[in-house]
Amino acid sequence: MKIAITGASGLIGSALVPHLRARGDDVIRLVRRPATAPDEASWDPNAGTVDLDALAGVEAVVHLAGAGVGDHRWSDDYKKLILDSRVNGTHTIVRAMIELDLPPRALIAGSAIGWYGDTGDHAVDESAPAGTGFLADVVRAWEAAAEPAIAAGIRVVHARTGLVVSAPDSTMGPLVSILKVAVGGTSSDSGGAFGPLIPSVRLNLAGRLGPGTQYWSWISLRDEVNALTFLLDNDDISGPVNLTGPTPVTNAEVAEALKQEIGRAWLPPIPTFAIKALLGEFSIEVLGSTRVLPSVLTETGFSFQDTTVESAIRTALEGS
User: Fold this and answer.
1) Measuring CA to CA, which residue among 249, 231, 183 is closest to residue 62?
2) What is the pLDDT of residue 194?
3) Angle at Cα 13 formed by Cα 86 and Cα 249, nearest 5°?
4) Helix 309-318 and helix 251-262: axis angle, to 10°?
5) Which of 19, 30, 81, 284 has the highest count of CB atoms within 10 angstroms of its CB?
6) Which residue blocks in the chain are alpha helix, DSSP H?
7) Cα end-to-end span (Å), the chain
8) pLDDT tens across 239-259, in order?
9) pLDDT score, position 74
10) Cβ neighbours of residue 74 under 8 Å, at least 6 residues apart?
11) What are the sequence ranges of the domains in the chain?
12) Sign of CA dihedral 298, 303, 305, 311
């Protein structure tokens, strides 16, 4: 299959590209600069342009591009960037798909479990309505931007990704690690959600965040990649699909699992007031609870390799 991918240099994209190539797919990476390699095509989501000639014959697009949710403290300008990078990028890629002489059959569009807002300890699946809050509003607009593709007869999947458990970024200091935790659902987050925690735990710097009762809906990086591949291959699946593991856990349970897997007797919790002081408005998301179940994946026969958070953390540690 010939597949075009945006966000190919991000956490998820950089794992997905070699995975697809290893099974024989022809992958075109969309880059925001002049293309310099045969497997690249240039695009500019802000200008709304895509090199259509390079996309000729593409059968599916995986759209993962978007500014990192936790890369910076949330100012009004950065919140606008978070929204615009997703909506404008999706508009651009959808227009390009429709303009091709032979449009691709499928768009696997990156999305996030931020759609559901704070669900407390109540479990939700793809049938749940949108929640409230900034990220819920972003995801609602993000997914709506793909509607012209649906109208054009293209199969669209909204891949609502949870907190990705992956190996840590060795360049990330412990304080930055703490600040970047609990983001999920973006292509550019270095080290995923748990990757930033691992060096902090190794240095005995971070246990649970705030009360620890908030649910974290996680997925291992290898299951994320396998799930995206599964969605590419299954033409009967469309609409929202939660890319989360089958057993969401509380933040306190995550901290305990990290402690056990890394080998620490005790980890100091980070109090709520400190998180609010450090993160400002973004602290609402870190301290919020989203308990999400992957009903579509489980009902359509997807097999998870990491069914527990402990397994996902061990997999990440093996790659660190």
Assistant:
1) 231
2) 55
3) 80
4) 40
5) 30
6) 11-22, 76-99, 134-144, 147-151, 174-180, 197-202, 221-233, 251-262, 272-279, 283-287, 295-299, 309-318
7) 31
8) 999 999 999 999 999 888 888
9) 85
10) 134, 279, 280, 281, 282
11) 2-318
12) positive
Mean pLDDT, rounded, for 196-205: 52
Q: Cα–Cα distance between 271 and 249 in angstroms, integer?
A: 19
More confident residue, 189 or 275: 275
Q: Quick one: 157 exposed, middle or buried, by C-beta within 10 A (0-12, 13-18, 19+)?
A: buried
CATH architecture for segment(s) 2-318: 3-Layer(aba) Sandwich (3.40)
Instruction: Report the pLDDT value the prediction gives residue 301, as an integer from 0 to 100.
Output: 96
Per the CB < 8 A criterion, the answer to whether 50 and 96 are in contact is yes
Q: Residue 7 pLDDT > 80, yes or no?
A: yes
Please state, in angstroms and rounded to a whole number, the distance separating the CA atoms of residues 287 and 269.
13
- The residue among 16, 5, 37, 74 whose CA lies nearest residue 221 is 16
* Among the listed residues 19, 143, 146, 1, the one whose alpha carbon sits nearest the alpha carbon of residue 60: 1
- Give the separation between CA 245 and CA 307, rounded to whole angstroms: 6
Q: In this predicted structure, what is the pLDDT of residue 266? A: 63
As given in the structure block, the two tokens for residue 16 are: 């997905």
Single-letter residue type at 90: T
Residue 186 — very low, low, confident or very high, per pLDDT cuts 50/70/90? very low
In whole angstroms, give the CA distance from residue 207 to residue 256.
Answer: 8
Q: What residue type is 120 in one-letter code?
A: G
Cα–Cα distance measured from residue 37 to residue 55, given in angstroms and rounded to the nearest whole number = 14
Angle between helices 76-99 and 134-144 (to 10 degrees): 20
Torsion, Cα of 135, 294, 216, 163 (10° steps) = -70
pTM: 0.89
pLDDT at 19 over 70: yes
Total residue length of the chain = 320
- What is the number of alpha carbons within 13 Å of residue 316 lying toward its C-beta? 33
The yes-or-no verdict on residue 201 having pLDDT over 70 is no
Residue-level pLDDT at 191 = 40
